[in-house]
Amino acid sequence: MRALLLAVLFLIPDPRPLPSQVPQPDPLTVVRRAGNVYRSMTSLQADFVQIIEDARLGDSLRSTGKLYQSGQNGFAMRFTDPAEDAIILDGRHAWFYNPSTAPGQVIRTSLESDPVYGVNLLGRVLDRPAERYTATWIRSDTVGGRRVDVVAIVPRAANVNFSRAVLWIDSENALPRRIELEESPGARRVLILSSIRANANIPRELFEFKVPRGVRIVDQ
To answer: Any idea of the CA torsion for 57, 58, 64, 67, to the nearest 10 degrees?
Structure first.
């Protein structure tokens, strides 16, 4: 009887779909949802790990710190390694302070703020994906224990600062967990976000660059 029961069970088809039959998320829907969520937030702060690779030179630079975004006029990357390095966008200027590699100076550039997104850089990248990108679903994955959808986007036009991007989007809350940008031939930037906090109160002074004593401003 037991042998007969086992034989019958093996003959009953498994109702679960095979891996190849599991429907894949629409990549444009994933990116569009992420853009809608990101733009709807009043603020975002997160710990980051940034890796910049240059295959032509065989060089790789790793840094860590905290990232802040507030509304459309405040963006900051304040580094903990290298300590004191900072990138600040205050709505009028972009400040690039890198005492670890260029001591004694800070580069200041006029900021052309987008009339819709201001300095909300990621919000701009995620905007109108169906019009601006060719999107491809890559796989499901995890980042920091969070399940993510991995999607590649390739710009249809040449007026963006990357040729291809791979986005790891949180499957639950649609927040970006990892971003890889191919910025030029052989050059790649990776940004990994953790301890993400949305809609938190961020002190305004984090988006203000105070020029240290003895540091000269280089306008570009």
So the answer is: 50
- The pLDDT value given to residue 10: 41
Q: Are 81 and 65 in contact (CB under 8 A)?
A: yes
- pLDDT for 112 equals 66
Backbone angle region of 90, left / alpha / beta, with phi > 0 → left and psi within -120 to 50 → alpha: alpha
State both tokens at 159. 């007026």
* 24-34 per-residue burial string, b: 16 or more CB within 10 A, e: under 16: eeebbebbbbb
Q: Does residue 146 belong to any structural domain of this protein? A: yes
Domain of residue 93, residue span: 25-198
For the ranges 90-94, 123-127, 142-146, 204-208, which has the lowest average pLDDT?
A: 123-127
Q: Is 30 a member of any domain? A: yes
Cβ-count burial of 190 within 10 angstroms (0-12 exposed, 13-18 middle, 19+ buried)? middle
